[in-house]
Amino acid sequence: MLLWRCLTPLLLITLQICKAQDCHKFTDLNFGHAFMGTSTKIRLLLYTRDKATCGTLVSHSNLSGHPQFNLSRPTTFIIHGYRPTGSPPVWMSKMTEQLLARTDINVIEVDWNHGAANLNYFKSVENTRMVAANLTAFIGMMQEHGVSLSSIHMIGISLGAHISGFVGANLNGSIGRITALDPAGPQFTGTAPQDRLDKEDAQFVDVLHTDMDALGYREPLGHIDFYANGGADQPGCPKTIFAGGAYFKCDHQRSALLFIESLNGTCASTAFPCSSYTNFLDGNCLNCDQFGAAGCPVFGYDVIQWKDVLLRLGQTTTYFTTNEKSPFCTTNYILDMVIWNMKERWGYITVKLYYNGTEAVATIDHKASKFKKYTGTKLFAQFDKDIQSVEKMSLKFSTGNVFKPKYKLRILRIRLTHLEHKKRPLCRYDIVLEEGKEVTFRPIPCEESNF
């Protein structure tokens, strides 16, 4: 008995060590590896609901040795991009976790850190073809075991987006879906479709742009392209180089964070089809009739619900805005204002909504708005959060003119309309806004006669 008591802790420790050895992690390299340069090596890490935090290293040539790899389930591949420091992507495990929480699938993290970790970006670009060839062969082996290409979803960020495209092209565009998160721009911009991601590479291709003026790709590439905050500078990201590495990667990496949030159901980002970000902010692109009863598409994982109509449309470019941190999604309203000032006024409006101690804010300042007597001015108001109901609201008018006299905006009528919810619009009449001063009031439901 004494011997058993002594041996029990040792056996438990041994069991834990063996268990840990069965779990494979993403390759963790460092700047030294990137400085010396790495040659391509591809590891496929399988995660399922049964082993959501424990990766299984999958053989490239023998699937029968992995009973937990249930080929009757759909399979999603996650493919990272360029890794100049050699560290694992900070977003990878979270995306895997959220995908498995959302649906019962196989998730395969494609670890090509050996090949992506290289100070020579051009070499990493060259290595993407080898990664794509490897994945093409692996998926071909899956096909031999009865897997339908329609059940395969590839999620690629940066260089990973183009790897997904190469795989899709190798398989004649038959895989079910490619989600491209800020596809890499350098070395791909201006190239032919066969040398980059293209909407013909899968049955459905959805693309997010977040850093098109630096590391990302500018032009549309998919059946639907989402441009978050215009597709370039993301709110909350550093604006100067003094922020260090975050200045270079924040906008680019935001694409992965936005997609992860689309998985967990915290909130949804409605995207509006438009010809430019300026037209979108001006409120000129809020008509969703082309999408039928489903309305405008929602960015992220669930956009697959719009697949049929998007395929009919061919290519759709959409825009949406986000907050600077999670929860990223904003809530969209139209604010109609009619003034009775004798002279025209130009300026900016800040709107706040209040309910049960919660405050939602929308600042409409992308350009000065024109207010003219008895002429409606339509403003697109994007609030930082959604609130259940509106108990109070406030308005503040500003011109940005420091040295000129303070103006007043005499409002004959305002009307606030929620774009996503079919709620009755809210109105208020006869309000005077003194420049720079916030005015708070209780709106009332609009009457039909007021429209």
UniProtKB/TrEMBL annotation:
GO CC term, one of those recorded: extracellular space
Domain Lipase: 38-328
GO MF terms held by the record: carboxylic ester hydrolase activity; heparin binding; metal ion binding; phospholipase activity
InterPro entries assigned to the protein according to its UniProt record, in alphabetical order: AB_hydrolase_fold (IPR029058), Lipase (IPR013818), Lipase_LIPH (IPR016272), Lipase_N (IPR033906), TAG_lipase (IPR000734)
Pfam families, per database record: Lipase (PF00151)
CDD domains according to UniProt: Pancreat_lipase_like
Catalytic residue list: 158, 182, 252
Binding site for Ca(2+): 196, 198, 201
Keyword Ubl conjugation: no
Reactions performed catalytically: 1-hexadecanoyl-2-(9Z-octadecenoyl)-sn-glycero-3-phosphate + H2O = 2-(9Z-octadecenoyl)-sn-glycero-3-phosphate + hexadecanoate + H(+)
Localization of this protein: Cell membrane; Secreted
Keywords for this protein: Calcium, Cell membrane, Disulfide bond, Glycoprotein, Hydrolase, Lipid degradation, Lipid metabolism, Membrane, Metal-binding, Secreted, Signal
Chief site of localization: membrane
Signal peptide stretch: 1-20
Role played: Hydrolyzes specifically phosphatidic acid (PA) to produce 2-acyl lysophosphatidic acid (LPA; a potent bioactive lipid mediator) and fatty acid. Does not hydrolyze other phospholipids, like phosphatidylserine (PS), phosphatidylcholine (PC) and phosphatidylethanolamine (PE) or triacylglycerol (TG).
Family: Belongs to the AB hydrolase superfamily. Lipase family.
Protein name in the entry: Lipase domain-containing protein
